[in-house]
Amino acid sequence: MAPNPAFSLGGCELGVATAATQIEGGRADTIWHRWAATGAAVDGSTPEVAADHWNRIEADADLMASLGIKHYRLGLEWARIEPADGHFDEAALGHYRRELRLLRDRGIKPLVTLHHFNDPGWFSESGGFAVEGSHEAFVRYVDRVVSEFAGLADEWITINEPNVFAYYGYRQGTWPPGRRSTRDMLAALTGMARAHIAAYERIHALQPHAKVGVANHLRVFDPAHVRNPLDRAAAASTEYLFQGAITRALCRGRFLAPLVQPRGVRPGTYYDFLGINYYSRDLASGPNLKTASKVAVNDLGWQIYPRGLADLARRYSALYPGPIYITENGTADASDAFRSRYLYDHLKAVADSGLPIERYYHWTFTDNWEWAEGQTARFGLVELDFATQERRVRPSGRFFADVIAHAGVTSDAYQRWVAPSRYRLNG
């Protein structure tokens, strides 16, 4: 007799996540708008179209509510709120105030991201987070935002994926600001960690009951050959350099080598929940990273590895105990051929983990402008026609709504949406 595929999520509540630059559309003077204007995205697209969410906040809130969504991680566009150094735009603040009210009126609790890869142009021109003292500008912005919205939001993510932003923008140079310097990368990591700590303290001074954290990008790094000591060492060192050291700085205020402890920053506890963005697994073979062969992959070639979500949550929560929020998890699947199975497998890993995972935010609500991939990578529960801006809930979106309604997966839901869903294997 086949095992029952149904399961309960227990105390874990589901939501969806987005980022301002990726969905709002229109013009804002961010590093991404400047970068995309040069044709740098793979398809030549820009974030000026995106999902036109800036003009459709009410309709999108209604669509979320129709799916039973009760938690929404949204981002603010710093460049709209502070278009010039020290100048705050009252109209932009009013727009976000209205959006937060729309969400609250529909029973949707916001988790607000203050920085999601989106440096304003003026901030980048001054050196961005790689410059000592950059945290002061960030805290000024945070102070204004939290003061304005304290009655509408009390959960905050200060910075999204500092390691990803620093690596691609300051080391590889394939993202803006387009630098290629290990020194600049380490400086930017230090600057973002210091900015988070300062923002954490300021938010709690303004809003003592707030919950504040970081959306940490965590990946599984395994040795390509488990019996090879060089591969084992490469996997361990890559994990430490990519995510271990920066997570320690962000959560505990301890800057271990190759980072340098900033003056005035004391070790302590600087998180109220452990935020985890999880997508994939890499194999370390000496100095190189690769994807395993004959494994399930998404449209971008990323390995689909559900057990890694629980493994990482267990490992990092042992270091940083407390509530866990899965602040992003999702997959690029334009045809929606396997997203329902992806959701099932990752939510099952959450349910079986025995860990205090209180939230799971799916990336993403609707198809968006996916950074360097432009409009080519489709992560949405809701399909978006970029030309007409028509939204259509995908079958995986219907499955997600059913999971929310039942606080878990029923046998009927499994048979309807998951059983027909199939992964594809790489070469």
From TrEMBL:
InterPro entries: GH, Glyco_hydro_1. It comes from the Bacteria. Keywords: Glycosidase, Hydrolase. Pfam families: Glyco_hydro_1. One of its GO terms (biological process) is carbohydrate metabolic process. The keyword Secreted does not apply. GO terms for molecular function: beta-glucosidase activity. The keyword DNA-binding does not apply. Belongs to the glycosyl hydrolase 1 family. This is Glycosyl hydrolase family protein.
